[in-house]
């Protein structure tokens, strides 16, 4: 209880990422250096401004035990609780997922998606992830060379253009570094798996002030070990007493299926039971499904729908959620160098080179196969492993072949190797001309991702033919194995090698000037004018015909596509009175693919007293459609038999042309007519510092977006036929010719909330202390999929894409004296309403709790710097070894059975050791 009370007290005063304390006007000396702050192009003395900017320094990142950029971004309370990390990214999150399983991680401020969060490096753009051109892969950020991170929690399209609806994350590299230091960071979990390690080397020579030059370089190597669900007891999809059980009958010990011309026929009955059943497994009849690892008796009561009882009463189920890879092995090598030449006191030139290489080995469970007579994969009569169920089913016809559903373990886990190379070269200059600051840069960046299939995949026709021989046994009991002949046959069907590749390019020429243009009684009016010229390109191709490979992760090809962007912007900083300052900005972008967009912004900073500050903003934003959304190839496919025309069937009841449409064709893919998403947003906040060293800020924000770009399936189009009539193409007689699905401009989203920040620092008996808290309260997140539908509230409710939690915070308390310092960190996420089993169609067990509990994690670290040139930090992450909160959702919709990786840390308690040594 004492630990719990202490943690609660810390939560009231404490942030995992302490930001610089607010500096008010009376504390700023005229001699302080003017800097450019994220969200503005005008250099000024750093102080608490009109826009909410959170600053995280590298020392805090190290002491927190954070070893990757993904971990850092996930710790932000303003970042969404979504599927944009490497764990959740192991699955497909519905039709709206503009991503591939390429081992990428993304930021998603306000939960608006990676496309709506702008990631910058030293204030400039870098190329998007090569596999999807969706957004910047966080793995490309050289964290070892970072000096600080600035998070602008406000829209910024008026300054930066597209992508900045949710906010901006700006990674600032170290500059003018001198010396040589090496650091080693190892992190080991108590329960095994998921270990991480990092080796970093940073060096620099020359002083800009004394030598007129500086050359800095950094190399960082990261290695993350695999963590499997089998290594964590909470990853358990079979907990029927809590309403959770698997819904898949694709089991390692196959379930037999019914069908015309097969041993089970079109259905079977049991003696004394008139119900017609559709699947059978001898282990189910015997109550022995659980004798095979991962299998269990299918829980028809929990998955009760119109077919569950007849389909699965005598079936076994398989908990493949407990067979998932929670986090897969990743290797990263990041290098960055920067050379700066001080021409004179007013001008300097610089060259910056960035290179990143990452290899992520993704693993998925073995393929699930349903055999059939049509493709020749049925188990033949007379085969060595022919399974006769006559003892359980009197109508079983052993003169006919068997069709079955099987988790094909002999093929092994489907394994993909995703290798990404990122590079950027930037040449620039900055300085002062006649009291005007200028900055100009020319850069070119590329990101290339190559995906190879290493194991678990095979040619569809070869696999079906191999199964039809009867040599491979789909009914292995525990401890049994396939014959060498069977394994050789399995091996002969496999595909290994290069599979697909994508590449993005970004060439940018940008610049701006800023300075004072005239004097007002309250002070000088400052102005910035800038331009931004970019060429963006993307290509994506398959190295093999993905349609020939069973359950391949193939994506539609996209030939070389490019677009030119030309933008100009201006910004004014106007002191209305000594206490009131107004910032005005506007930017106009011209895209070669869809035309012009103009986005203004106005913000204010009002300081009526030296301890009180009011601030606010109002602005417009936009998000340009991605290359994939615009240009990915149109794929022609067919829906299965029996599709109902929701408009035509009521008008022609019983007519199969309207009420049971055979093989309805549809098209899906890119849509070159897409319009940009647009937004209107604003914020209003207050900052107080009643006593020096103690401050608090509260900022209320609201964002309304329209024309959201979503990927609609043909089923969604048909279900909303009245609202999407243009997507349903009809023949002259009114019947449906085909359906156009894929990317469309849908309705919009409305979100509101508030950010709370608390800061405190002081000294007690020779000890210095610092306490921080950053929290985000989401009041509402409403979303309508299609124009004309009502907006639906998602805050506090389960959703398959993002969880919009009511409250998240990160808090910290640090204490130091002499060579010692310590930090205690708390991460908190509020609970939410759980998904009912089977979407509410089932019958939850008595006492089922439809609410997921809140999740709290503590980290503790201590740092000692009393050894010459050496710093040692030892920390324990997840101090109380807290398991993720239980959730009854099934793995088919969100990775993880019985837990949710979007909220919780699956690694458990871990030991973090950081050693840093300065040679010079």
Automatic annotation (TrEMBL):
Residues 393-879 form the TonB-dependent receptor-like beta-barrel domain. Keywords: Cell outer membrane, Membrane, Receptor, Signal, TonB box, Transmembrane, Transmembrane beta strand, Transport. It is a multi-pass membrane protein. Coiled coil: none annotated. CDD domains: ligand_gated_channel (cd01347). Its main location: membrane. Residues 50-168 form the TonB-dependent receptor plug domain. It comes from the Bacteria. InterPro entries: Beta-barrel_TonB, Beta-barrel_TonB_sf, Plug_dom, Plug_dom_sf, TonB-dep_rcpt-like. Residues 1-25 form the signal peptide. Gene3D superfamilies: TonB-dependent receptor, beta-barrel domain, TonB-dependent receptor, plug domain. It is found in: Cell outer membrane. It holds the Pfam family TonB_dep_Rec_b-barrel. Belongs to the TonB-dependent receptor family. This is TonB-dependent receptor. It comes from Duganella aceris. The lineage of its organism: Bacteria, Pseudomonadati, Pseudomonadota, Betaproteobacteria, Burkholderiales.
């Amino acid at each position: 209880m004492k630990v719990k009370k202490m943690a609660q007290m810390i939560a009231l005063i404490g942030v995992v990422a302490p930001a610089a304390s607010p500096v008010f006007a009376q504390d700023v000396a005229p001699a302080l250096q003017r800097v450019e702050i994220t969200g503005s192009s005008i250099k000024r003395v750093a102080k608490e401004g009109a826009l909410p900017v959170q600053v995280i320094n590298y020392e805090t990142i190290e002491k927190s035990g954070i070893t990757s950029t993904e971990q850092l971004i996930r710790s932000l309370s303003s970042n969404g609780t979504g599927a944009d990390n490497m764990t959740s990214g192991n699955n497909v999150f519905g039709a709206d997922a503009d991503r591939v399983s390429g081992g990428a991680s993304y930021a998603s401020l306000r939960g608006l998606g990676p496309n709506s969060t702008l990631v910058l490096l030293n204030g400039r753009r870098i190329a998007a992830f090569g596999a999807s051109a969706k957004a910047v892969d966080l793995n490309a950020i050289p964290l070892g060379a970072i000096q600080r991170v600035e998070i602008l929690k406000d829209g910024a399209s008026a300054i930066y253009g597209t992508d900045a609806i949710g906010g901006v994350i700006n990674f600032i590299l170290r500059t003018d570094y001198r010396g040589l230091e090496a650091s080693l960071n190892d992190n080991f979990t108590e329960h095994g798996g998921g270990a991480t390690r990092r080796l970093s080397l940073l060096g620099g020579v020359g002083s800009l002030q004394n030598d007129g030059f500086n050359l800095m370089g950094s190399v960082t190597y990261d290695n993350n070990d695999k963590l499997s669900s089998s290594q964590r007891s909470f990853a358990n999809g079979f907990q029927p007493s809590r309403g959770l059980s698997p819904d898949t009958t694709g089991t390692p010990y196959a379930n037999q299926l019914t069908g015309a011309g097969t041993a089970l026929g079109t259905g079977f009955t049991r003696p004394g039971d008139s119900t017609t059943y559709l699947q059978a497994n001898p282990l189910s009849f015997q109550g022995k499904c659980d004798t095979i690892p991962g299998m269990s008796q299918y829980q028809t009561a929990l998955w009760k729908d119109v077919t569950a009882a007849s389909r699965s009463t005598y079936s076994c189920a398989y908990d493949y959620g407990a067979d998932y890879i929670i986090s897969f092995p990743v290797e990263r090598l990041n290098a960055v160098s920067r050379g700066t030449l001080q021409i004179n006191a007013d001008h300097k030139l610089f060259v910056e080179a960035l290179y990143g290489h990452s290899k992520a080995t993704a693993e998925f469970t073995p393929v699930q196969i349903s055999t059939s007579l049509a493709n020749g994969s049925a188990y033949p009569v007379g085969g060595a492993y022919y399974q006769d169920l006559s003892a359980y089913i009197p109508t079983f016809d052993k003169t006919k072949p068997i069709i079955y559903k099987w988790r094909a373990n002999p093929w092994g886990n489907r394994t993909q190797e995703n290798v990404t190379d990122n590079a950027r070269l930037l040449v620039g200059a900055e300085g002062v001309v006649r009291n005007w600051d200028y900055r100009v840069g020319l850069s070119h960046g590329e990101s290339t991702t190559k995906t190879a299939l290493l194991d678990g995949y095979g040619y569809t026709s070869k696999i079906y033919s191999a199964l039809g021989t009867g040599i491979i046994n789909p009914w292995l009991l525990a401890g049994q194995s396939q014959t060498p002949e069977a394994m050789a046959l399995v091996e002969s069907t496999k595909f290994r090698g290069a599979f697909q590749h994508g590449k993005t390019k970004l060439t940018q020429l940008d610049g701006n000037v800023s300075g004072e243009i005239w004097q007002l009684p309250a002070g000088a009016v400052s102005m910035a004018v800038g331009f931004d010229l970019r060429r963006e390109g993307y290509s994506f191709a398959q190295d093999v015909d993905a349609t020939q490979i069973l359950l391949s992760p193939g994506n539609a090809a996209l030939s070389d596509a490019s677009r030119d962007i030309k933008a100009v912007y201006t910004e004014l900083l106007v002191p209305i009175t000594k206490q009131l300052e107004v910032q005005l900005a506007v930017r106009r972008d011209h895209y070669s693919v869809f035309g012009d967009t103009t986005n203004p912004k106005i913000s204010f900073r009002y300081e009526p007293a030296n301890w009180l500050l009011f601030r606010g903003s109002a602005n417009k934003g936009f998000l340009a459609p991605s290359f994939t959304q615009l240009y990915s190839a149109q794929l022609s496919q067919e829906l299965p038999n029996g599709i109902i025309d929701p408009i035509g069937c009521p008008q022609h009841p019983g007519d199969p042309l309207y009420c049971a449409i055979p093989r309805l064709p549809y098209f899906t893919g890119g849509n070159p007519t897409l319009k940009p998403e647009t937004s209107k947003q604003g914020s209003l906040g207050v900052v107080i510092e009643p006593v020096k060293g103690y401050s608090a800020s509260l900022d209320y924000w609201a964002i309304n977006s329209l024309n959201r770009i979503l990927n609609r399936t043909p089923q969604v189009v048909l279900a909303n036929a009245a609202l999407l009539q243009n997507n349903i193409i009809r023949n002259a007689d009114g019947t449906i010719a085909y359906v156009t699905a894929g990317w469309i401009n849908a309705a919009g989203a409305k979100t509101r909330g508030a950010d709370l920040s608390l800061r405190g620092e002081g000294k007690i008996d020779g000890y210095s202390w610092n306490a921080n808290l950053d929290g985000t309260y989401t009041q509402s997140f409403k979303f309508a999929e299609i124009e004309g539908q009502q907006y639906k509230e998602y805050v506090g409710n389960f959703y398959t894409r993002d969880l919009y939690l009511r409250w998240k915070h990160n808090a910290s308390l640090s204490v130091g004296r002499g060579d010692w310092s310590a930090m205690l960190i708390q991460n908190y996420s509020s609970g939410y309403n759980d998904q009912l089993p089977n979407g509410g169609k089932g019958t939850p067990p008595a006492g089922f709790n439809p609410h997921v509990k809140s999740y709290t994690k503590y980290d503790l670290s201590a740092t000692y710097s009393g050894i010459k040139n050496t710093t040692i930090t030892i920390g324990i992450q997840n101090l109380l070894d807290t398991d993720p909160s239980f959730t009854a959702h099934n793995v088919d919709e969100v990775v993880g059975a019985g837990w949710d990786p979007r909220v919780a840390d699956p690694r458990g308690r871990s030991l973090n050791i950081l050693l840093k040594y300065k040679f010079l």
